[in-house]
Amino acid sequence: MPARTQPHPWIRTALSLALTLVLAACSGYPRDADDMTQRADEQGMRVGASHDPPWVLVAPDGRVSGPEPELLQRYADARGYRLEWVPGGHDALMRDLERAHLHAVVGGHHRTSPWKPRVGWSQPLRARPGGDAPLPERRIALPPGQSAWHLAFDSFLVQHGDRR
What we know:
Layout: H1 9-25, H2 36-43, E1 45-49, E2 57-58, E3 64-65, H3 67-79, E4 83-87, H4 90-98, E5 104-106, E6 120-121, E7 141-142, H5 147-159
Parallel strand pairs: 1-4, 1-5
Antiparallel strand pairs: 2-3, 6-7
Domain Solute-binding protein family 3/N-terminal: 46-126
Pfam family, one: SBP_bac_3
Keywords: Signal
């Protein structure tokens, strides 16, 4: 069996340098296409809310409550974000979410929603509004293309036991 020769030292150096540059270029991932995380840090978190009892309740005066809004408030508090609720109709809120004008939308999502392929979705929630009825799968709608934002939110859900 012939002896295996070692590559020339400059080849190993070049390969090491190339690998270092590739890894350094990847250090900023995941990223938000529209700087959602930075905007939440600087301007606060804007969340759309569509009346969807018992999970999301929007009062006539615009106050938002329920298990899903409480979850978003806990997330905002944990990250130090000011939270601004934007009550409205589901489709109008989802259009704003699709354009990255909102950080999330709660309420009004259904299994057959036409928005499923157009926006991002959180991990399934397990907030139970009460009673013994089977819990339908609930998710928070998130803006598309915001990888760091999605990862941070889903990590929060996993760490705080808010997944199914």
